[in-house]
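Re: the 180-residue chain
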Amino acid sequence: MVYFYCYKEKHDFQSVLSTAVSQLLQQNPKCLECARTLFDNGTQGNGQNNHFTSLTMGNYILLIKTLSLLFDKCFFVVDALDEGTEYNEFANGLKALTLSDAESASNVQVFVTSRDDTSHDQFMKTLATLDLPLREEMKQDIRIYLSEEVEKQIRLGKLAVEGNSASIIIEKLEEKADGM
């Protein structure tokens, strides 16, 4: 499994691919040998024999697809995609990772998590085979967490409340969380 968390800064897809290669190389000793062979041959998927000097996005995709074949299943998890990424670049890159074609086979399966966001709905629709909305399922977990935190703050003396103020605080925080 390859895991990449998109924290709150812009990520280009090539940095995700670089991270993925690093993770795959660490998980299976055969991957390093396979990568060396690709580098030594300079195979770029087009029959040219140019030694790699630096990896292009296409080189990374070919390498990951090739390495994926050394695993029974190769899951590529991109978590919190909504946190600041170039959606079109990600959509095209993730699709390319999963496609088997005449030049390269692939064993990559993609799992993307993201908040429901209309700014990238089109991106997700081109990639997704399953949409699993969790907003409603998360509400109870959020309520439990907020209740425990408010009670903890009251116990520690950091929050003074009267009457049903604690319930009102929890309700307002839950509304602001909006399932996240």
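The helical segments are 13-27, 29-41, 57-68, 87-98, 121-127, 135-155, 165-177.
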